[in-house]
Design a protein that fits this description.
This protein is of the alpha+beta class. Helix content is 46%, strand content 14%. The protein contains six helices and four strands. Strands 1-2-3-4 form a four-stranded antiparallel sheet, covered by helices on one side. A hairpin with a 2-residue loop joins strand 1 and strand 2. It starts with a helix and ends in an 8-residue tail after the last helix. 9% of the residues are buried.
């Protein structure tokens, strides 16, 4: 079975090399063939290539999982005008490293299932680490760029 995946990878690599040599007109035609619709008029060559590449890989290896599609479809429910929505909580998997520079010093936090680790010491939350780093009360997810407001 591994040989099949490797040969598929080689086929995709060859196809991607072929795409690089196409004109913009030919790329737009390829987009129509793969996506079944016209590409947006203002799409750059780079984005055309990326969209075509994604579609080729999706056909070879499968698309997004059902759980990801479900999360995407429910990520932005309709909100009545004049109301505000709380941001969805950021989910960070154990093993993820978060990096933040503060006052010229780089801080790296390792996420565990039951908390976080910073400078070899375990903490219960990112907010505790953010407070240790800054000396002030911070939302940990916001401090480490996981909150929509921090972007």
């Amino acid at each position: 079975m591994v040989a099949d995946v490797n040969s598929t990878s080689l086929d995709i690599a060859a196809e991607l090399s072929r795409l690089e040599g196409l004109t913009n007109f030919e790329l737009r035609s390829e987009w129509r063939r793969l996506h079944g619709m016209q590409p947006p008029k203002s799409l750059s060559r780079d984005l055309l290539l990326r969209g075509i590449t994604y579609k080729i890989q999706e056909r070879a290896f499968g698309g997004l999982s059902k759980s990801v599609l479900r999360r995407l479809s429910g990520a932005a429910p309709e909100v009545p005008e004049g109301t505000t929505r709380k941001a969805l909580p950021a989910t960070v998997k154990p093993g993820t490293r978060l990096v933040r520079e503060w006052n010229g010093q780089t801080h790296t936090v390792l996420v565990h299932a039951d908390g976080v680790e910073w400078r070899g010491k375990r903490y219960r939350s990112l907010s505790v680490v953010a407070r240790e780093i800054t000396g002030a009360h911070w939302s940990g997810p916001r401090f480490f760029g996981l909150d929509a407001r921090s972007k």
